Amino acid sequence: MIAEQHIDAMDAAQLRELTARLLTEAKHKDAVIEKLTHENAVLKRLKFAAQSERFNAEQKSLLDETLDADLQAVAEETEHLAPRAAAPRERQQAKRQPLPVSLPRREVRHEPASTTCACGCQMKRIGEDVAEKLDYQPGVFTVERHVRGKWACAECERLVQAPVAAHIIDKGIPTAGLLAQVLVAKYADHLPLYRQETIFGRAGFAIPRSTLAQWVGSAGVQLQPLVDAMRDDLLRRRVLHADETPVAMLDPGAGKTKRAYLWSYCSTSFDRDRLVVFDFAEGRAGRHAMEFLGHPGEQAWRGALVCDDYAGYKALFAQGITEAGCLAHARRKFHELWANHKSTLAEQALALFARLYEVEREIADLPADERLRLRQLKARPAADALHAWLLAQRQKVPPGSATAKAMDYSIARWSALVRYIDDGDLPADNNWVENQIRPIAIGRNNWLFAGSLRAGKRAAAIMSLVHSAKLNAHEPHAYLKDVMQRLPTQPASRIGELLPHRWTPQPGC
């Protein structure tokens, strides 16, 4: 009735505007559904055709679990856009087998807050519904038995029962603790799902890797809004680090792997909030960095970016982003000369770089204004001495030599390399972000044999949460478990409370 009155109050122009907006939204939703439907068909074709590809056994296993996770993620996104159209999928699901009676059980009872009926009568308990969830602590499975008592009033026949508790995977058997275990093992401990299947089997309940993959796909979809919020928060910082590292990605159509890239963006070590957000891309082109930081326009990020001399970042600087060079990259070129050839010129250069880094160690824990003052007082003379030495020595070495190339790198980028001296918020180098990527190199052969861009994006999103939790001194499993317990009922306006740098553990975490 209220809606009808509201429509009656609208004039013709407002109705036309509302109709146009609703039609635009409907067309956009239809386009997304069509895109997801096509992607689903492609994934199914890849899944059933994978046996004929020229992969080894391990790669085939990794491809299978990736495709299963992708299919589940696409299904969830489609269901979110068109829940009625997706309803038949639920009826086609196989009946779940009961959990083994040998597993220890812990009851969690859910009863109404009051069992007194509105008519004043005391209600009687007439039954209960029981739902079992599979939980896991390292090496041990347990079962949570959620018991929801049914209470009825004999006089007015009113029935009362506690509502079903919200879970990250609706109608699924895993607890948030088990899901956190699977995600941390895959994206922090670098254990593919087929290895986790074996580990769980030793604990008494072998979970098929296809089921684990579906859980990963579902969890990735549910956690994505949290990662989006963290990216938005990160882009409010004035100074960011950026770096990229190659990873292998399976190319099912070609039957081999191809090179993709994991881009890393993070706040500085001077920032009180510690955030790192990874972005997976199929290439190293500068457009990927531009897409992450924002296209030219009002919403584009316009801070200072600490990065190396990779050409892909150059377009960003043309759009108004300030370039801050990496002193460590410049120093590293001389260190390689000294380590490999015992170059005396390289040794002299390293001594001059050491003076700059001595200042940085001295001021690391000071506030920005004090860092700026001491840099001007101590680092500026040291930088001027290094620059003068580079210019003088460059005239004495032959063009094209390794020493000349090392000197040319610093001379050509000198303004960017010493920009930190005039800004107390800028770090001297990019080592901070490189340290965030380094642990990933350990497991890149395990978790990024992706059969699709979606799988890589999902890995980047979950790793963003895991590594940001570590940066803020949180145990990743405890963080993800608590977040996935709270996320289903967390209002969208308060999702920021669950970000790693703002998260406060609940009692018992």
Termini gap? 47 Å
- Cα Rg: 28 Å
The stretches of 5 or more residues where confidence is low (pLDDT under 50) are 1-5, 85-92
Number of helices: 17
| Relative strand content | 5-15%
Strand ordering within the main sheet:
7-6-5-8-9
Number of strand elements:
9
Q: Which H/E pattern describes the elements?
A: HHHHEEEEHHHEEEHEHEHHHHHHHH
Largest sheet: 5 strands, mixed
Structural class estimated from helices and strands: alpha/beta
InterPro entries: IS66_C, Transposase-related, Transposase_IS66_central, Transposase_TnpC_homeodom, Znf_dom_IS66
Pfam families: DDE_Tnp_IS66, DDE_Tnp_IS66_C, LZ_Tnp_IS66, zf-IS66
Protein name: IS66 family transposase
What distinguishing features does this structure have?
about 500 residues, alpha/beta, four-stranded mixed β-sheet, 17 helices, about 15% strand, disordered N terminus, IS66 family transposase, IS66_C, Transposase_TnpC_homeodom, Transposase_IS66_central
Please, could you describe this protein's structure?
This protein has 17 helices and nine strands. The protein has helices at residues 2-9, 12-49, 57-81, 83-91, 176-187, 193-202, 209-234, 286-293, 314-318, 327-341, 344-363, 368-394, 402-412, 414-417, 431-447, 453-471, 476-486, and strands spanning 105-110, 124-137, 140-152, 159-161, 239-251, 256-266, 276-281, 304-306, 322-324. The strands form two sheets. It has a five-stranded mixed β-sheet, with helices on both faces. β5 (239-251) and β6 (256-266) form a beta hairpin. The radius of gyration is 28 Å and the shape is elongated. The model is unreliable at 1-5 and 85-92 (pLDDT under 50). It comes from Ramlibacter cellulosilyticus.
